[in-house]
Amino acid sequence: MTTCRFIFLLLCYVLTTTVDARPEDQNTEGWCNPAVNVTKEYITINCNGISPKVITQLERLIVQKNADLVGAKTEIDYWLKKYNELITDLTKRPATDKLAAKARELLVEGELNATEALLKESFSQKLIEQDQFSEAAARNAYDLGSIKELQLAYREALDYYEKAISIQADNALYLNEIGLLHFRLAHYKQAIEYLEPALAGNLKSYGEDHPKVATTRNNLGLAWHSLGEFHKAINYYELALASDLKTYGENYPNVASIRNNLGSAWFSLGEFHKAIEYYEQALTQGIKTHGENHPDVAITRNNLASAWNSLKEHRKAIEYYELALASELKSYGENHPNVASTRNNLGSVWNSLGEHRKAIEYYEIALASNLKTYGENHPSVARNRNNLGLAWNSLDEHHKAIEYFELALASDLKTYGENHPSVATRRNNLGLVWYSLGEYYKAIEYYELALSTLEKSLGKNHPNTIKTLRNLDTARTALHEPFRD
């Protein structure tokens, strides 16, 4: 099973604003309209409305720490919004809060470490002067989490958000923020633990048809989707879509994003025609809203290509992938997760067309980029290695294929645990290569493990389950064992 990566869209809200977390067209009033240029090892962000010292600090941080977060370069827009949120919050502090006023001045100048020191002092004072369970203490802890996020110190940010929640356990903003950070760090189960009470809080505060409720449902859908719970994801996406259609109507970016995510869920369930229907709606709307060369338009084209590739319409898939890649290179430059994703997917199409060495070229470029962005244990790195294993296996380089498959399996087990479709895919592919080497017992062992997982996660009628069952029967036939019912 060749793995084509589809991309889905995370929605987030910061304070009272619901925004798309992907870069989007922005005006320059009050803050940043970033133009991001990537040249070899360095990132240049040209920005209006924010001190150049702040941008210099961000550039340095991304270069130093970009492997620490899932897609750090993708987070530039989010970082700038987070920066503005913290400035706004410090501005709203009482005039008597001199430490907050000074912290704001330092933050405006890009002095993140000095800002943190003042916020820590302010937090300590509030614990002494006020009830340690006061709203002000919780907000201070939340702001310290925000400054740690701006420093790209995500584990420490989580600690401060936890402190805020320990003081105000039902604060939907704090719950949502820690849930989003866990999601962005690929901690999907932890994300759900916080997003579910955030949703309950938003429902209580706002009722059913409110943008924050829709956004949290979309993000819960993404978390369940990432864990392989596709029907559960679809339920959340559909509720989010119905709400946003009621609030905004058809021509709103979040509506297109949720349709893209619905397409990806149906894709995961092997319902490729249904996926295409959602993707085409998202693409039409995205072009109308953003124009041809917007990152979200490229994402939807990438996903459409994956669906057409799954229907063996390989040339149509290549056409969509190449349009997406050209747009992404223009938006991001070479070393970006979405560029790596599209190259991985182009490799998969060429592999399907029997052009295995051409596929390997694409996979190796994608793997090098993703290792630089994410480090070893990330789903995108596992996906690239899985696909390299398939291509080398097709060239009869079976032991090289096993090496890649085993690395991919170890990574996915660490990320997901046993009962995830990706883990099953890696085991199925190890079965294939051991079968090719005539090691039928070993192949059967891997196929049986894969089949058990796929039946639980995707059901008996999913295309991947059926393929694995056929592979198992073929291996058993080679040993003169009976077919499984």
From TrEMBL:
Signal sequence coordinates: 1-21
PROSITE patterns: TPR, TPR_REGION
Sections of the chain in a coiled coil: none
Repeat region (TPR), residues: 138-171, 214-247, 256-289, 340-373, 424-457
Keywords of this entry: Signal, TPR repeat
Superkingdom field: Bacteria
One Pfam family in the UniProt entry: TPR_12
Protein name: Flp pilus assembly protein TadD, contains TPR repeats
Organism whose genome encodes this protein: Nitrosomonas aestuarii
Source taxonomy: Bacteria, Pseudomonadati, Pseudomonadota, Betaproteobacteria, Nitrosomonadales
